[in-house]
Structure formats: structure tokens, C-alpha cells
Amino acid sequence: MRKKMCSLILASACSAALVVPAWCMGPVHAEELTGSRNWLVEFDGEEMQSNFSSDEMAEEIYGILPGDTMDLQVAIKNSGEEAMDWYLSNEILQSLEEGSEAEGGAYTYRLVYTDDAGEETILYDSNTVGGEGASQSGEGLHQATDALEDFLYLDQLAPGADGEVNLSVTLDGETQGNGYQNTLAALQMNFAAETAAPETITRKGENQIVERTERGENTVTTVYETQHQTPKTGDTAPLLILSALMLFSGIVLLVFAVLYFKKHRRSGEGGLQS
């Protein structure tokens, strides 16, 4: 089955004019930043469409500083006429430490999917990975997302149903250098959707088994006929007695028939002699 894909690419280049020397920086205050608009990726039955651009996402995430937390929400919706299976691939194209002086800075990274009923599924949650000193594990943001290289199954969305993908990144202000303040990771989030596999429902009746396959507007019904047998009981004595009586009755009738035939034969012979 063909997958419909939509790539949402975040990328930003740092300009030398934006670099601020460390001695000019004031105290770093942690903030919680959230995307300023409702971003949506929608499948209309033919293709993926989104109501935002990669530049808009870059503007939202560009202001993140050490100690800050950035939350990005992307809603997904199935506007087609068939149930669709949705998938997500989140690949880090450039780790936050690339191009910075503080390589291996610590961070937390959490990716969550929320379905139409409000139930959350954690797709990936990395507690401090990387870092300097005691928190160092030798991994950066890029290496930590190896588990997300392939498409992950999100949900099966019925026509009109929706869900939400939430990406949360927190930079650790104590372990990251000044380079992190002007270096962004280039994130690429690929969504894919394909027609959901049909659901087969089997119902057993008294004399038949009905296998019903439903798929969108197409319904295929197959009926398999089965034989209905009289259940056997464990007590066979009555059946044996009945069989014996029938056999005895048959023998008695046969004897009477033979005697009757002989009697009439003798009567016939006597009439001829006279």
C-alpha cells in the first residue's frame, strides 16, 4: 500500500552577528515555551496537507536558551472517507552540539502521542543523555534518537478522527555552553498514512458460520455451510432394546408368513385330488 508522506523540516542557520560573547550575558532564566499556533497535518483522502511552514516552526524554536523547555504540538487529522493507519518518523538531522563549543551538552527529550480519546502514548523519553562531567554518557541529541529512525505506528484514525504529537525538548543550563544559545538542531518530522487493513469478524450460528469482512464502503460477506448433527448421548441401552424388539417382530412376522403359505398350499393340493 502506498503511503502518503509529509515532511516538516525545521532548519535555521546562525549568523555571526547574533553571537553574543559570554561576558555580555546576564543570568539565564529558565522558561517554558510553547508553539504559538495550532499546527495541523491533515490527510484529505488523497494527500497530506499542513497549515504551517518549516520557517514558522523554526521561528518558534529559535528562542530556546539553556534551561528552557520548548513544547511543540502537531495535530493530525483524517479527513478522508476511509480509516487510515498513521505513522511518524522523527529524525534529528543535526544535533544541538554541532557547531558549538559545548559538545555533549545534557538535555531531556520527550515525544508523546495523544489519541482522539485523550489517552497518551510515550513514543520516546530520554532522561539526561549526554552532558559534561558527572552527567556525561558520551551521547548527544543526534545519537539519542536512533530508536526513531524508522516509522513508528501512531494510531488508526477513523474518518473525521484526530490525534496530537507533542515534542518537548529541555536544555540543561548548567552543562551547556554559550554555543547552544545560537545553534539549533534541524528537525525533520515525517508523517505517513496508509489505508487501514480490513477487520474480519467471524460469527458462529447454529447451522452456519458467517465470515464478514468490512473495509470502508466495500463489504464482502462469505457464508460457509456446516452440517447440523444430532448430539449423541452416553446411554445406548434404550436403543439396543428397541433394535432387539424390531428384530424379534420381524422374525415373528416371517414365521406367520411361512405357515400361512404352507396352509394354503396344502388346501390347494387337496382340491385337485378330489
Structure write-up:
- The protein has 274 residues and is an alpha+beta fold.
- Strand 7 and strand 8 (120-126) form a beta hairpin.
- The chain has helices at 54-62, 237-273; strands at 4-9, 32-34, 39-43, 48-50, 69-78, 84-92, 107-114, 120-126, 152-157, 162-171, 187-195, 199-204, 208-215, 218-225.
- The strands form 3 sheets. Strands 2, 3, 4, 5, 7, 8 and 10 form a 7-stranded mixed sheet that branches. It has a 4-stranded antiparallel sheet with strand order 1-11-6-9, with no helix packed on it.
- The model is unreliable at 6-28, 92-103, 128-139, 179-183 and 216-229 (pLDDT under 50).
- The protein has 2 domains: 4-195, no CATH class; 198-226, no CATH class.
- The N and C termini lie far apart (105 Å).
Q: What keywords describe this structure?
A:
alpha+beta, 2 helices, 274 residues, four-stranded antiparallel β-sheet
Topology:
Elements: E1 4-9, E2 32-34, E3 39-43, E4 48-50, H1 54-62, E5 69-78, E6 84-92, E7 107-114, E8 120-126, E9 152-157, E10 162-171, E11 187-195, E12 199-204, E13 208-215, E14 218-225, H2 237-273
Parallel strand pairs: 2-5, 3-5
Antiparallel strand pairs: 1-11, 3-4, 5-10, 6-9, 6-11, 7-8, 7-10, 12-13, 13-14
